[in-house]
């Protein structure tokens, strides 16, 4: 069971909304990645029928008896409940994590003005990428009650930055996702600090269930991770030591949800004095 959460230090501010049917949207995407690390997409061309079928299937799956769902329990892929990762993080959530593969990186590459059109998309679109699809279900939470916990928040999914390179999220109409606008400690290595990776969390709801679906795009395990050379100036130093995706994943596997997983790869600042 999750502990009642401390008062949020999460800020609120209008999130950029990007119409990706607009040819100018590529620049807006890059600006949103630099300023927030988060944006809402409209006119994305994914049919509402498809989305609602997927959502209904997710609801059907999570409505199955626990004994049937736990037959799919596994790590890293499979069904899980309450425990997030293997290092003691818990939340008011159950989920199903699957292996998956899509190509959508080229839009961001275009916006960054990278000539080789598919640089980023290649990273996350190989046939053997470490990409995944996650369904989350946050059932109504009876613990959010004035008598039992003073009406405090209950954490559905604790504060974290996503472990992969790009995340695409869709949720039903139940609110709960909060993004932290004041503390963006996770900084993308590939853009040498240019793009932000936003901290976020989900609060459980006392009456309604929340269902979310997220596609996490990642590269292949052997991929070397370093700033894209076309994005850094000649004199600009990389902020991070080089590492492979598999080295990063191994260290991420041993971290807690709120840890900064890139810290160990960060270069020591040079002291001029
Ligand atoms: O359920 C949500 O809306 C977000 C979940 C999330 O942040 C995650 O699965 O990484
Ligand atoms: Fe997340």
Automatic annotation (TrEMBL):
Domain Fe2OG dioxygenase positions: 128-219
Keywords tagged on the record: Iron, Metal-binding, Oxidoreductase
Family classification: Belongs to the iron/ascorbate-dependent oxidoreductase family.
InterPro entries for the chain: DIOX_N, IPNS-like_FE2OG_OXY, IPNS-like_sf, Iron_ascorbate_oxido_reductase, Oxoglu/Fe-dep_dioxygenase_dom
Coiled coil region boundaries: none
Region (Disordered): 252-273
Pfam families reported in the protein's UniProt record: 2OG-FeII_Oxy, DIOX_N
Chain segments annotated as transmembrane: none
Protein name: Fe2OG dioxygenase domain-containing protein
